[in-house]
Amino acid sequence: MRLALCQFNPLVGDLRGNGALLLADCQRAAASGADLVVAPELALWGYPARDLLLRPSLRQLQGDVLDQLASALPAGLGLLLGIAEPISDGNQPDLSNAAALVDAGRWQVVARKQLLPSYDVFDERRYFRSGSGPCLLELERQGRRWRLGLTLCEDLWVEERIAGPRLAGADPIAALQPLKPDLLLNLSASPFSQGKAALRQQLAGAAARRLDCPVVYVNQVGGNDELVFDGASFVVDASGAICQQLPCSQTALAYWDGGLSPAGAQAPLPPPAVLPGPEEQLFRALVLGVADYARKCGFQRALLGLSGGIDSALVAVIACAALGPGALQALLMPSPYSSSGSRSDAEALAARLGFGQQTVAITALMGAFADALTPALGAPPAGLTAENLQSRIRGTLLMALANQGGQLLLSTGNKSELAVGYCTLYGDMNGGLAVIGDLYKTTVFQLCAWLDSDGARACRRDLGLPEAGDLIGAAIRLKPPSAELHPGQRDSDSLPDYAQLDRLLQAYIEQHRRPEDLGPELEGMDPALAQRVYGLLRRAEFKRRQAAPVLKVGPRAFGSGWRMPIAAGP
Questions:
Q1: Distance of CA 522 to the CA centre of its chain
Q2: Phi/psi class of residue 473: alpha, beta or left (left: φ > 0; alpha: ψ in -120 to 50)?
Q3: SS3 label, residue 316
Q4: Is the pLDDT score of 43 beyond 70?
Q5: What is the pLDDT of residues 377-416, one digit of tens each?
Q6: Could you tell me which residues are beta bridge partners of residue 302?
């Protein structure tokens, strides 16, 4: 039996369009001798469909699209895909997160997801009921009856020694053990975060060894709002060794025989791909997130404010890789406090990458705002008020250009700044997408150093970026971070060293710690500093609630996976 792994990029809610993409892949798979195409979880809907799942018209449309697939599928080919199965007993939720088999002119539900995540960015218990297992599909192919174990995404995440505490409920892998499947198939929509691709492979390897059979893992790919799905689908053999690997952050249709086909029945398969290193995985996920957010929201061009600093430089590189330099425009907005080096660094970056840039100085606007506000304030704006005015002037200019040109404004703030409120509402926080809002400042430094290294050359070439020389440049990478809002300003005037700050923030954000219960890895940290950073994190919640969507690339990002109250006790 030849399997086709369909790692495709759906548009959420476009059931007809997603069905057409699946059918095209099925036709290609049939031409390559495939017997069964395996598509991701909720493939027709795209994941996460959120409250679109509640629309009766879309539920009806799903049935129509499945009927069309059943009638159009090439003869002899089966399609296994994720759907939302309606339940008509009058109770809520009234859906199952299910897998359907389209085969021989009809379709039927063959499995239901048993473990429903409602943590981090997931909210499946809002829409779905848990299925009961085990889920085994018997399928006749190549003169043999195959016993296929079926799981959906979270159903595979049951190994606490690998992934930590698991969801309460059934162990779908244990339930399949006495049934002795020939193969385990997992249909997934698993968002990217750093290190997650390797973790999925470890979980699949553990399941393969428990069931003594290969495991086929098929993941969604593409950016859907703030979530980025990296694909990276794979097959492991019964020992847990990788025998097929699909690329990261790209659509793909790949095949796997695994010795299951008669000898010589099919053309030999190429050797499996190799997962790239962590920096490349991260960079490709960010590029995909920007590309799909723009494309799926109808933007063809993007705009950003370019300061000559490292954050806006990294966002510019990501945007050029995602959209092409011809689709990116930058605005330089120098003030009396902007250094000549910052302006020349920004101009040099634009020249290296080939995107357009314009300059609008804000000195006169700063004076006009000061004159207008002085009577109401009783004195010219000063201190933080004057600094925030500069940021808000720049934010207004950027929004005006974006409105006039129909461009997507990219916000350039990093996670460290968002965490402690070192950002200005209606100023530098303006934008339609916060590209690096889930990257700590130390990660920004690391990613930019990798981009300028020899190890990034092949990736840069593949994504259409200049292959030779620096992209970011040492002048940008090595300068002390500064917002340049008053003479001689440095981030270190207001914030602790980023290495210290980010260690504290990771403990507070990702480990749910408080200053009084920091772990041994933070032993020796100044208690006053720990308390101060914690207070800044809490007080900035009202700002984050109004921020642009943040591309999630880490274990806990600000956005749908961060559900903190604004008004709360200590």
A1: 29
A2: left
A3: helix
A4: yes
A5: 999 999 999 999 999 999 999 999 999 999 999 999 999 9
A6: 328, 408
- Catalytic residue, chosen from 6, 26, 135, 153, is 153
Whether 153 is catalytic: yes
H or E segment to which residue 148 belongs:
strand 144-152
Residue 112 sits at φ, ψ, to 5 deg, of -130, 135
Cα–Cα dist 52/63, whole Å: 15
> Which residue, 119, 287, 289, 277, is CA-closest to 198?
277
Catalytic hit among 6, 26, 113, 279: 113
Q: Please give the full DSSP string across 24-35, using - where no structure is assigned.
A: HHHHHHHHTT-S
Nearest-angstrom CA–CA distance, 140 and 55: 36
Q: Is the pLDDT of residue 261 over 90?
A: no
345: its two tokens:
């660094």
Give me the amino acid identity at 298. Answer: G
Q: What is the 3-state secondary structure (H, E, C) of 171-229?
A: CHHHHHHHHCCCEEEEEECCECCCCHHHHHHHHHHHHHHHHCCCEEEEECEEEECCEEE
Residue 89 contacts residue 47 (beta carbons within 8 Å):
no
Helix (H) or strand (E) holding 110: strand 106-112
Number of H helices, E strands in the chain: 17, 20
How do beta strands 234-236 and 78-86 pair?
unpaired
Question: What string of H, E and C letters represents the secondary structure of 412-447?
Answer: CCCHHHHHHCCCCCCCCCCCCEECCCCCCHHHHHHH
- Give the mean pLDDT of 97-117: 97
Q: Read out DSSP for 4-46?
A: EEEE--PPTT-HHHHHHHHHHHHHHHHHTT-SEEE--TTTTT-
- CB-based contacts of 492-495 (< 8 A; 24+ apart in sequence): 494/422, 495/416, 495/420, 495/422
3-state secondary structure 221-250: EEEECCEEEEECCEEECCCCCEEEECCECC
**463 alpha-carbon distance from chain centroid:** 18
- Single out the catalytic residue among 26, 41, 279, 280: 41
* pLDDT surpassing 60 at residue 323: yes
Active site residue 41: yes
d(CA 241, CA 244) in angstroms, rounded, equals 9
Q: Centre a 10 Å sphere on the Cβ of residue 528 and count the other Cβ atoms it contains.
A: 9
pTM higher than 0.90: yes
Structure tokens at 221: 């790919």
For the cut 70, the answer to whether the pLDDT of residue 266 exceeds it is no
Tell me if residue 448 is catalytic. Answer: no
Residue-wise pLDDT tens digits, 406-431: 999 999 999 999 999 999 999 999 99
Measured from the Cβ of residue 378, the count of other Cβ atoms closer than 10 Å reads 7
CA dist 439 and 437 (Å) reads: 6
Token code pair at residue 88: 């008509």
